[in-house]
Design goal:
The chain has 272 residues and is α+β, with helices and mostly antiparallel strands. It is 12% helix and 26% strand. The chain has a 9-stranded mixed β-sheet, with no helix packed on it. Strands 4-6-9 form a 3-stranded antiparallel β-sheet, with no helix packed on it. It has a two-stranded parallel ribbon with strand order 3-14. The longest helix is centred in the middle third of the chain and has 12 residues, at 114-125.
């Protein structure tokens, strides 16, 4: 039976939501304008670039929050968006090596108590961390489109099928209209140099993955460490992990395809 999956991977435990980008809002190959050749920008956040501002729905927030990012080897600065599609590295290899990048604290949050930030930093230094890759299932656009209800079809976020899917997965405070397919997770150690090797992570084209940072404090409620093979995750474990800030959301493409960017840049802040 399909398990309900929380929209934890786009909603922050701190401010929970999205910040749209100033991207073109149109699909197609782009070069120049700071983007490398052979990269596509998916539709669409609307002309003003603020996701949700054109919406009458109060369920869609206008900020996306993360404190760390997952950067894949070989990426450029223009491919650090939170939501992307990446081709498999080879016919039998989905991912390669990556690194964890600390995102600087936003100036808008400098009023946060310095003492709290110092405590968080000390706690982070005293515990080992892993990258948890959570597989949601296989979701090509052709299978997402029939799921979009008529009232959503004209909305800006529904023009991007993958974005609509991620927005409409259930979360801890709101049921969704989509379910993940046999969700599972696998953990990968982070080195002292903030490097992580994801070459053992299996995946096929159109598989959707969410990446978060976990520590031993997460084992009891979020699922025990899974280093050697993927493990299924229960609904309760989904909801526990929904409190985590997200490193990256990736849908795989066939080997040799073009990277597609779904422009939702992170709103930078430290966890509170």
């Amino acid at each position: 039976m399909k398990k309900v999956f929380g929209l934890f991977f786009l909603l922050s435990a701190c401010a929970g939501g999205f910040s749209g980008s100033g991207g073109s809002g149109l699909p197609g190959s782009v070069g120049g304008e700071g983007l490398p050749q052979g990269v596509e920008v998916a539709a669409a956040t609307g002309s003003d670039g603020v996701l949700g501002s054109q919406s009458s729905s109060s369920d869609i927030a206008t900020k996306f929050v993360r404190d760390h990012a997952l950067d894949f080897d070989g990426e450029t600065e223009t491919i650090h968006e939170i939501l992307i599609e990446r081709p498999k590295l080879g016919p039998s290899q989905a991912f390669g090596k990556a690194s964890i990048r600390k995102i600087p604290t936003s100036k808008t949050l400098q009023m946060v108590a310095v003492q709290d930030l110092e405590v968080s930093a000390i706690q982070a230094l005293n515990q080992e961390v892993w990258v948890r890759a959570i597989g949601c299932g296989n979701f090509p656009d052709a299978e997402i489109e029939p799921l979009i209800p008529p009232e959503d079809q004209s909305k800006p976020w529904a023009q991007d099928k993958l974005l609509w899917l991620v927005l409409n997965l259930p979360r801890s405070d709101k049921p969704g209209i989509v379910e993940c397919q046999s969700p599972s997770y696998r953990d990968f150690p982070v080195s002292t140099e903030s490097k992580v090797d994801l070459t053992a992570l299996a995946g096929e084209p159109q598989d959707l993955f969410f990446f978060v940072r976990v520590s031993s404090a997460d084992w009891s409620k979020g699922g025990e460490l899974a280093l050697d093979a993927a493990k299924p995750l229960s609904d309760e474990q989904w909801l526990e992990l929904s409190k985590k800030l997200k490193l990256r959301i990736v849908r795989l493409l066939p080997h040799g395809n073009t990277i597609r960017i779904h422009p939702i840049p992170a709103y930078h802040l430290s966890p509170n």
